[in-house]
TrEMBL record:
<dbReference type="InterPro" id="IPR001048">
    <property type="entry name" value="Asp/Glu/Uridylate_kinase"/>
</dbReference>
<keyword id="KW-0808">Transferase</keyword>
<protein>
    <recommendedName>
        <fullName>Aspartokinase</fullName>
        <ecNumber>2.7.2.4</ecNumber>
    </recommendedName>
</protein>
<dbReference type="InterPro" id="IPR005260">
    <property type="entry name" value="Asp_kin_monofn"/>
</dbReference>
<dbReference type="InterPro" id="IPR018042">
    <property type="entry name" value="Aspartate_kinase_CS"/>
</dbReference>
<feature type="domain" description="Aspartokinase ACT">
    <location>
        <begin position="373"/>
        <end position="431"/>
    </location>
</feature>
<dbReference type="GO" id="GO:0009090">
    <property type="term" value="P:homoserine biosynthetic process"/>
</dbReference>
<feature type="binding site">
    <location>
        <position position="114"/>
    </location>
    <ligand>
        <name>substrate</name>
    </ligand>
</feature>
<comment type="function">
    <text>Catalyzes the phosphorylation of the beta-carboxyl group of aspartic acid with ATP to yield 4-phospho-L-aspartate, which is involved in the branched biosynthetic pathway leading to the biosynthesis of amino acids threonine, isoleucine and methionine.</text>
</comment>
<dbReference type="GO" id="GO:0009089">
    <property type="term" value="P:lysine biosynthetic process via diaminopimelate"/>
</dbReference>
<feature type="domain" description="Aspartate/glutamate/uridylate kinase">
    <location>
        <begin position="2"/>
        <end position="261"/>
    </location>
</feature>
<comment type="similarity">
    <text>Belongs to the aspartokinase family.</text>
</comment>
<keyword id="KW-0028">Amino-acid biosynthesis</keyword>
<dbReference type="InterPro" id="IPR036393">
    <property type="entry name" value="AceGlu_kinase-like_sf"/>
</dbReference>
<dbReference type="GO" id="GO:0009088">
    <property type="term" value="P:threonine biosynthetic process"/>
</dbReference>
<feature type="binding site">
    <location>
        <begin position="204"/>
        <end position="205"/>
    </location>
    <ligand>
        <name>ATP</name>
    </ligand>
</feature>
<dbReference type="GO" id="GO:0004072">
    <property type="term" value="F:aspartate kinase activity"/>
</dbReference>
Length: 448
């Protein structure tokens, strides 16, 4: 059995629906299907989810939303009519609007993109629609309540030929709750886990994961095979093709994932395998990912090892401001807090004043607008010299490296540059890998 998740681009238009049906019809193991809301592809230039967020903003501001709702209906009706489906969209829309006037909920409203798209897809494939609110249950921390979700899965009358909307579930209070953006990947991963699927197929608009963000490196190589360990590091640092929280449910159960292209289904895509499984990929570096807009606070404290309370106190301030520390490299007399996009919650001055007051360090230094780039590879464990070569190459290209850290996972080399240098640094690293490290599998022409 395979779970097939189709992203927004795969269900954006009637033409895309036809590609999905061809893929489903081609393999009888594709019995469990998860869909996102109609997204962007070709003539469709806006994600339905984004339109629904606009409606939510307008409703909350008391503005008229008739036009925006008409846009949503028209978009879905075009698919309904082109494919000669008989989904009662007007009736469904009226129920939704009625529900919103009596019990307004932003999450319920935005989740209707997936709900309505899944209704259309179920009708088109001849599969049964299953509401995600009757399958995925959240715990109080917003994670999936596995026991309750598994019980709901077991009670289903059948486990074949189902279409399930992604991106939402039901919370403890019984209300519809959204997952993070890109969350249909998470729904698909959980469904694969519930079904103990042989494969989780994630269908999108690229033929697998590229070694670097295709918006920066246009013709970046695709990754044929990678481990969940590597994927986790890369998604954490911004590989937006697969939602970060979708890794764990399948990784723990050793279910492989394949990232595939709905527009080129014959392409092999990227296979993601369990960390212990051997891979014969000859690549030295698996991928490069990064994020901009970090704030780096370096705190100097003589004999840090006997003053660990300084770290604890600084982290207390971070937690009190609900900030995220992505990395925390430490040295003998100093440590650094690598904080993601702090400006929205608190000013840098407020934050540093609070840290000074909480832990009275010897010295505190701040660097703003730092971009972090992660080079991820299982080979780094065995060949740490790779890091030195990449750094030398950055130096040759006059790129000012602000920090370097080989994180505990030891498959991730982290490099900090200024936001301004980010794109250039990614290009330099990518070309340095190509020139210095890419080693095709050995080829023996003959032995005499
Ligand atoms: N390293 C990468 N490899 C492939 N695609 C990437 C990478 N980083 C970012 N992307 C972007 O992710 C997009 C696919 O993810 P997403 O937009 O969520 O698709 P879907 O609508 O199918 O869920 C690609 O079109 C590409 O622009
Ligand atoms: N539609 C939601 C959930 C999702 O997973 O979408 P996509 O598969 O298009 O990334 C979003 O836009 O966030």
């Amino acid at each position: 059995m395979k779970v097939a998740k189709f992203g927004g681009s795969s269900v954006a238009t009637a033409d895309q629906f036809q590609k999905v049906k061809a893929i489903i019809d081609q393999d009888s193991q594709r019995q469990l299907v998860v869909v996102s809301a109609a997204g962007k592809y070709g003539p469709a230039t806006q994600k339905l989810t984004d339109t629904l967020f606009l409606i939510a903003d307008a409703m909350e501001a008391g503005r008229d939303v008739t036009q925006l709702f008409a846009q949503v209906t028209a978009r879905l009706e075009a698919i309904n009519q082109t494919l000669h489906l008989q989904v009662p969209l007007n009736k469904l829309m009226n129920t939704i609007r009625h529900q919103l006037t009596t019990h307004y909920s932003r999450d319920y409203l935005v989740s209707r993109g997936e709900f309505l798209t899944a209704h259309l897809m179920a009708a088109y494939l001849g599969y049964t629609f299953l509401d995600a609110a009757d399958l995925f249950f959240f715990d109080d921390n917003g994670g999936i309540d596995e026991a309750k979700t598994m019980a709901a899965y077991r009670q289903l009358p059948n486990h074949h030929g189902l279409v399930i909307p992604g991106f939402y579930g039901r919370n403890r209070a019984g209300h519809v709750q959204l997952m993070p953006r890109g969350g249909s990947d998470i729904s698909g991963a959980w469904l694969a886990r519930l079904a103990q699927a042989d494969l989780y197929e994630n269908w999108t608009d690229v033929s697998g994961i590229k070694m670097a963000d295709p918006r920066i490196i246009k013709d970046a190589d695709s990754i044929d095979v990678m481990s969940y360990d590597e994927l986790r590091e890369l998604t954490y640092m911004g590989f937006s093709v697969f939602q970060e929280e979708a890794v764990q449910p399948v990784r723990e159960c050793k279910i492989p994932t394949r990232i595939l292209n709905t527009n080129a289904p014959q392409d092999p895509g990227t296979l993601i395998i369990h960390d212990d499984d051997p891979s014969d990929d000859p690549r030295i570096i698996t991928g490069i990912a990064g994020r901009k807009h970090y704030l780096v606070i370096t705190i100097r404290q003589y004999q840090l090892a006997v003053h660990l309370e300084v770290i604890q106190q600084a982290l207390g301030v971070i937690a009190a401001h609900h900030l995220v520390v992505d990395y925390l490299p430490t040295g003998i007399d100093s440590f650094s807090l690598l904080i993601r996009e702090p400006r929205r919650q608190v000013s840098v001055r407020e934050l540093t004043t609070a840290i000074q007051a909480a832990c009275h360090p010897d010295k505190l230094e701040v660097t703003e607008n730092v971009a972090l780039i992660a080079m991820v590879s299982r080979q780094l464990r065995k060949r740490p010299a790779i890091a030195g070569k990449v750094l030398a190459y950055l130096d040759d290209n006059l790129l000012n490296v602000q920090l370097v850290s080989q994180t505990n996972s030891d498959i991730n080399l982290l490099i900090g540059v200024t936001d301004k240098d980010y794109d250039k640094a990614v290009r330099v690293i990518y070309s340095s890998i190509h020139q210095n490290f890419y080693r095709p599998a050995p080829y023996i022409e003959g032995i005499a």
